[in-house]
Write a structure and sequence with these properties.
Elements: E1 2-8, H1 15-22, E2 29-36, H2 48-66, E3 74-78, H3 82-92, E4 97-101, H4 107-121, E5 125-127, H5 136-144
Parallel strand pairs: 1-2, 1-4, 2-3, 4-5
Helix pairs in contact: 3-4
Length: 145
């Protein structure tokens, strides 16, 4: 059985992540979803409580569709820094791969998270949004939701 650690912020409902997860329904796979506590980007100011509430909603949304493929899927809200969120999750369980669905405003930052994850944890990293060049659609989608 393959056990995947999925780190998804604004990308929790992305087509690419859904295709990846649904593509594993014929293989015995299970998923643990971690949603970093990223602030709501619709607002200029935010506090930790609001960010936690937004992350809780994203987690519920993500687990809703992931459980269609893997009824055993579980998840948690993680640190605002995806690297710290990954480290916390790896302290409590072992995973065969880390799946990133990070939608940062700046593509360089997302690529930095991908590279740092690969170096830091010694677990294969799959960046499902890595081939996307234009993140403006992601930002429009986030504002609309």
């Amino acid at each position: 059985m393959q056990r995947y650690l999925v780190i998804a912020d604004l990308g929790v409902g992305s087509r690419e992540l859904q295709e990846f997860v649904r593509g594993r329904d014929d293989v015995r796979s299970t998923f643990h979803l971690v949603v970093p506590t990223v602030p709501d980007r619709k607002r200029l100011t935010w506090d930790e409580g609001e960010a936690h509430l937004v992350a809780r909603k994203r987690l519920a949304h993500g687990l809703g569709w992931i459980r269609e493929v893997d009824p055993r899927a579980d998840g948690e809200i993680g640190d605002i820094d995806p690297i710290l969120a990954i480290g916390d999750a790896l302290r409590t369980s072992r995973y065969d791969a880390i799946v990133l669905a990070i939608r940062e405003r700046h593509p360089r930052r997302r690529l930095s998270v991908t590279a740092r994850t690969g170096r830091a944890f010694g677990v294969p990293v799959i960046d499902v949004l890595g081939s996307r060049r234009d993140l403006s659609a992601d930002m429009r989608e986030e504002r609309a939701s």
